[in-house]
Amino acid sequence: CNLTSYSSAVRIGWTNDGTIRNCTLSNLNIIDSSTGIGLFIPPSIRKDVMDHTNSAGSDVGCEETVVENITFSNIIMDKQAGYPIHIHLDHAEWARVKRIHNLYFSNVHARGPELPCFEGRPDCLIEDVYLNDCTFEQTDGSEFEDRGGHGPINTDSTATHPLKMEYVRGLHMNNVTFASRS
Fold it and tell me: What's 56's DSSP letter?
C-alpha cells in the first residue's frame, strides 16, 4: 500500500474500542503524512458525549481498550511531519484502557523532524515494544516550510528532539539507528 495523510497514515485505537489483537500490517510506503503509525486513545471525547443515546457519542465504544500482538513490518516512511510512530494514551478517566502490549516494528525506515514517541499512563503502561532492524532519520523539517495543514513543525535544525517515552515497560531494540541530518 502507498499511503499519504494529513493525519495518521495508519491509525489504531479510539476511546473505549474493545480488543484489537493479532494484526499484521506490512509492505507499506507512507509518504508525506503527519504521523506514520498512530495508536491513540484520544483526549477529544468528553464525558457528556459518552451517553450512547445521542449521535455525538455514537463513535465511542463501551469496552476497555486492549491492544496486543500487533506487528508492523517492511515499512518506508518519508516526509513524516510529526512522529513516525506515536503511541499516546490520554489520561482522561473515561478513556478506559486495560492493556497495550506486544507491539512489534521490524524493518521500519522513517525520515522526518521527529523520533518515535511512546506515552503510556500511570495506570496503563505500554508494555513490550520491539524495534528490530529500524532506522529513524531526523531531519530539520525544512521539507514542510511551504505547506500548511500539518500543524506545528519544528524547522530549527539546532533543536534536539529525543526519543520520547513515558510509562513504558520493556522497550526492546535490536539493530536500531537514530540519525540526525544537520
Answer: G
Length of the chain: 182
Q: Provide the β-strand partners of residue 129.
A: 103, 171
How far is it, in rounded angstroms, from Cα 130 to Cα 145? 33
Closest CA relative to residue 73, chosen from 125, 117, 26: 26
User: 67 with 92: CB under 8 angstroms?
Assistant: no
Residue 150: which pLDDT band, with cuts at 50, 70 and 90? Answer: low
Distances (CA, A) of 121 to 65, 89, 111, 127: 14, 6, 27, 11
Dihedral of the alpha carbons of 110, 25, 171, 109, in degrees to the nearest 10: -20
40 pLDDT more than 70: yes
Residue 98: which residues within 8 A CB-CB, separation 6 or more? 64, 65, 66, 124
Distance CA 112, CA 32 (A): 9
The answer to which of 7-16, 123-132, 133-142, 155-164 has the lowest mean pLDDT is: 155-164
Query: How far is it, in rounded angstroms, from Cα 170 to Cα 67?
Result: 16
Distance, CA of 79 to CA of 143 (rounded, Å)? 7
pTM for the predicted model, two decimal places: 0.84
